[in-house]
Each structure stands twice: as structure tokens, then as C-alpha cells.
Amino acid sequence: MCHVIVTCRSMLWTLLSIVVAFAELIAFMSADWLIGKAKPSSSEDVDNRTGGSQEPYHPTLGIYGRCTRISHMQLSRRDTLCGPYAENFSEIASGFWQATAIFLAMGIMILCTVAFVSVFTMCVQSIMKKSIFNVCGLLQGIAGLFLILGLILYPAGWGCQKATSYCGPYASAYKLGDCSLGWAFYTAIGGTVLTFICAVFSAQAEIATSSDKVQEEIEEGKNLICLL
Description:
The chain is α+β, with helices and mostly antiparallel strands.
């Protein structure tokens, strides 16, 4: 018989697992990993309404995507174009970024799988006498290691030709040059930290769903068990 068991700790772990998976996925897909040096507006970049020059813009560069201004769209309000600069994996700008993409993708796939499974832990807490929470926590720890490897390798690719075109000639491995880090990089770091928090917290979720109070309510014949 399926017993739906919901506790504060198990629900919090489930929500955190989903948030972490989405945060890492959004960061990976974003082009806002590096914010390039400001590109000055040319004399032709004139605002139609005020007649003044538009402010300098900052192109952004991601692992496989970028956002930049298109010349024939400079006079419109939508003057930037975002999309992948690499049509296939081999066209990613740096070998280090290729490795970063692999490690991040592996970590994100594991996190998305755990996030999907975590929803069903309300009904199924163990498989083959093994706690799903503990298994998921172990997988989240492994995913966190993949994410760390990806984030460590990413700055090593800052000296590639694509990065120097955005960050200037002084950019090199682990040196930003004229660039600054975008929100996607910080989101990936924050998501990695939360991944390890989730891995540790999974043990608390397992304890909460197998506590004496839960067992008492199961023995009383309740199918829906909600505990604070």
C-alpha cells in the first residue's frame, strides 16, 4: 500500500532539489558568463526620439552562446541578438570550455533526474530496501563534484581567441582582462553550493520520513501522513 508521507524536511529537500536543477540548467544555457568590455557607440548610433547617442553596450559571452549588437538593428529598441556561436560541440571556443560543458551537462543531468525522482519520494521512500533519499543524496554529491570540475576548468579558457575578442588582449587563463563575470557564473557557483547542501540534507529527509511518529501513523492505518 502506498503511504503519502510529507514532512517539512522532506518537502524542503524536494523543493531545493528542483530549484538547484533549474538554476544550474538556466545558468548553463545563458550567455551571461562573461561581460565584455564596453563597445562605444558610433556616430551613427543615434536615438530616434532624443537625437542623442546611445550608451555604450556590453556584449556577453557564454560557454557556447553570445549576445551582441547587430549593426543594422542599432536604431531599433531591440538592438541585440543572442544565440549560440557554436553550431556543434567542436566549435566551442576552447578545449577547456568543451570540458566545462561536458562536466556541467553531466552534473545537470544527474540533478534533473534527482529532481524528478524527489517528487515521488512522497509515495515511495525506498526501493529494494535502499532509501531513495540516501541514493539521491549520493547522486547529488557526485553531481556537485562534476559541477566543481566544470567551474574550475572554465576560467582556464579565458585566453582563447573568442574570449580575447571580448575581453581584450590582456585576457588569459584565470585572468579576465577587460571583462567581468556575469550572473550566470555566480548562479552556477551558488547552485553548486546548494547541491552539496541538498546532498547533506537528504539524510535529514530520510530520518524525518522514517521517524517513530510516521510509523505510528502508518500502524493506525493512515494513508496520508503530514508532519511538521
